[in-house]
Amino acid sequence: MLVLMSTTRRGFLTAAGVTAAQNMAHAQDHDHDHQAVPSDPALRTKALESLLVEKGLVDPAALDALIDTFEHKVGPRNGARVVARAWVDPAYKQRLLADAPAAIAELGYTSGQGEHMLVVENGPKVHNLVVCTLCSCYPWPVLGLPPVWYKSAPYRSRAVIDPRGVLHEFGTQLAEDCEVHVWDSTAELRYLVLPERPAGTANLTEEELAALVTRDAIIGVAKVPPPGEKA
């Protein structure tokens, strides 16, 4: 089963540290010969962060605020504006589909991890889903930091093996005749989805449209809900 984690970054790291301590105690109790603490990036991150905090080199509150900005504010908001512009400006949409980095740069969004991007468009008969099967390659300039579940092994494997099942667990229902295309992002090329414009939005402004667009819709695990409907 795909496990979707909504915990905070600090909570996730704290839980990882607790798990490591429990594993170590278990190994000591049973006198196991194997490595007690798994070599996990979360545990290494926790150890490094604890050391920097202890030496006064990092303010935990400032670090959490920075991570939250990239994960929930700056990145996804940029992507939402790109999508909204494509919805209201057909010429921009064509430029976005033809040369995503250049079109996105028109709105001022350029940085590392976004030099090579490709936009794939959803439609009534096609739904696109983005994954990185190797690690967590992600279009940072328009989506910020990848969510924890995007980097998880269950999502990375099941998105390819059972994409409809994954979409169902996110609450996304597709018609039987709708094809699902899975795109595997790499360090050389990162994908993002241009979602379908929802019904009932003909009179909305570009800014109002952008407010409807979510990070999950640009990854492809969700659709953009109509106005007034919860995502």
Explain the overall architecture.
With 231 residues, this protein is mainly alpha-helical. The protein folds into 2 domains: 9-58; 63-219, Nitrile Hydratase, Chain A (Alpha-Beta Complex), CATH 3.90.330. It has 11 helices and 4 strands. The strands form 2 sheets. The protein has a two-stranded parallel ribbon. Helix 3 crosses helix 4, helix 3 (60-88) crosses helix 10 (206-212) and helix 4 (90-98) crosses helix 5 (100-106). The two termini are 22 Å apart. Residues 1-10, 12-21 and 23-38 have low confidence and may be disordered.
Order of helices and strands: HHHHHEEHHHHEEHH
Unreliable runs: 1-10, 12-21, 23-38
The name CATH uses for the topology of the largest domain is Nitrile Hydratase, Chain A
The biggest sheet amounts to: 2 strands, parallel
Specify the CATH class of the largest domain: Alpha Beta
How many strand segments?
Answer: 4
Specify the CATH homologous superfamily of the largest domain.
Nitrile hydratase alpha /Thiocyanate hydrolase gamma
* Envelope shape: globular
CATH architecture verdict of the largest domain: Alpha-Beta Complex
Number of helices, counting only DSSP H or I runs of 4 residues or more: 11
- Largest beta sheet: strand ordering: 1-4
Which percent range describes the beta-strand content?
Answer: 5-15%
Estimated helix fraction: 40-55%
Termini, distance in Å?
A: 22 Å
